[in-house]
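Recap quiz, item 2
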Amino acid sequence: MTDRYAQVYARSLSEPEAFWAEAAAAIDWYQPWERVLDASRPPFASWFPGGRTNTCYNALDRHVERGRGAQAALVYDSPVTRTKAVFSYAELRDRVAQFAGALSGLGVLPGDRVLIYMPNIPEAVIGMLACARLGAVHSVVFGGFAPNELATRIRDARPRVILAASCGIEAGRTIPYKPLLDAAIELASEARPEHCVILQREQLEATLESSRDLDWDALAAQAKPADCVPVAATDPLYILYTSGTTGVPKGVVRDNGGHMVALAWSMRNVYGVEPGEVFWAASDVGWVVGHSYIVYAPLLHGCTTVLYEGKPVGTPDAGVFWRVIAEHGVSVLFTAPTAFRAIKREDPEAEHVRRHDLSHFRTLFLAGERADPDTVAWAERVLGVPVIDHWWQTESGWPMAANCMGLEPLPVKHGSPTVAVPGYDLHVLDDGGVELPAGETGAIVAKLPLPPGCLPTLWNNDEGFVSSYLARFPGFYLTADAGYLDADGYLFVMSRTDDIINVAGHRLSTGGMEEILAGHPDVAECAVMGVADALKGQVPLGFAVLKAGVTRDPQEITAELVQRVRDTLGPVAAFKQACLVARLPKTRSGKILRGTMRSIADGEPYKTPATIDDPEILGEIEQALAELGYPR
Ligand code: COA
Ligand code: AMP
């Protein structure tokens, strides 16, 4: 390792307050902070207490005031609707101010929650920034979730207003959002919003209920622009729900001040991007990648951000990423490895790449799931630019391990997201909390305090924050990932230590899916696990044991189980296979041997666990999987 990264990293840990105070100079404050870090209430910590600022002002207004008004802030490219639009910083600021005025007219006050259920369209970004402008707290829900999931989030966040689009467009079909929203509000009747503001898309107009529903355009047209409201640096900017170890999602809270400081720092130092350049995160605004790197970070840094509504393949072909990069002059692309597996599968010789001018394109960043070395090597070969795997999670909000291209590119090791990002003091511990030597796999943890930008707590749930993340190893944040650090300090992230799986880069809980299967009237017990998938990395596979006396057609029951997960959790779960078995393999103490079942499904060699109650059941599982088409 050469010096620059090592020096910056060492300083970030030895003098965190001086380090982040310097980084905070990239942000405009109405009032400076009283302290950089307040860790007087362990295990909680807050960054920049006493400071007052506004995230929307920093993302838009100040750039206009300083001469970026005519520069493109947001490029919307939607092959699924054959639409493109460019919003300059001045235009985006005006649209956001106008819509913030509309929200304010509906009574939205600082601290009120506004839930956003929209696809990747400019109004989703406008809605988020309008909330930030008013000091209201947005909570964006990914469109691929079913009403039940939406209802859970409505119950927890208790939004005053919900912003939604009339429909989303998935390759080849239009998905009406309004009926899903109505069903969710019915389910969460104790937390009904006062209003729903519906953006009518021309592909499918929604029916509005006069008392509650308002038309987005009509509302915005009559509103007066609203100014930015100064908020405390420690006030929440947003809540983003993410899968926990049960069906109940966790409301990850993000603050205003620390979040801006960390994101702005990451743009230059991690991604190596300068203001004025074009940055594209090919994700969805409903995920943390969308929050941080479609919306906030590029705008805070004065970049042009690309909002893409489409898939990497099929909209219309495997060349669309290269078309977008060439057409909009993208310097840096960030996406999930699964997108590249999809492209590679359709265009293995990368013939589409040759048809586009990628001369502006400098770096590809991958995250969201393990970047398999084959995919990384393929991307390097066909693109001829550095391909950087980096590791983080909804909770951190920005990268925890990366090859910091703006500091000093380090040699790439396939299979590793490189090294700890400045601010993150990463360690690997054994079950007893003892630090493991290089090369040994254990729990990946970050020493407290976490750097700015990371979650200060869970929404209305300080206790859950402590029990989920801070209690297991006092003094450390538990990432729930397992892996090791090698002798050069490179991190290797191997698996989760909980029941979370990553399906096409989407984070899902198998425990949540088990709860859904267990709710089927014919199911006595069940197990769901993530099995390897060549495209999506992992997909869920369910096993169910039926109640005694059930004699219905097994195929009918498995079809119902698949439909049940789709209807309750949503299509994003990609739960397509369920399998009925007579018994599940268990330990003598009754724990289901999910890991062994997964090894069988993945065709990996496995040892029969010494604690197994009845080893014969493993043969039955092999047989059932063979019938589903899994190789033996
Ligand atoms: N609204 C409604 N439904 C949605 C949706 C949305 N916003 N997003 C996805 N879905 C549906 C899809 O239509 C699909 O339904 P289906 O089972 O009827 O086909 C299902 O949810 C799964 O979607 P997806 O995971 O996108 O799979 P896919 O098979 O349509 O596409 C890939 C596969 C690899 C092309 C796609 O997953 C992809 O582009 N991944 C990129 C990774 C990414 O963006 N990760 C986010 C974190 S960085
Ligand atoms: P999410 O909160 O949806 O961003 O998912 C976070 C989880 O995705 C992490 O805890 C990891 O399990 C996984 N993940 C994200 N990036 C990587 C990566 N680069 N390598 C391996 N796993 C990753």
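The longest strand covers residues 523-533.
The two ends are 45 Å apart (CA to CA).
End of item.
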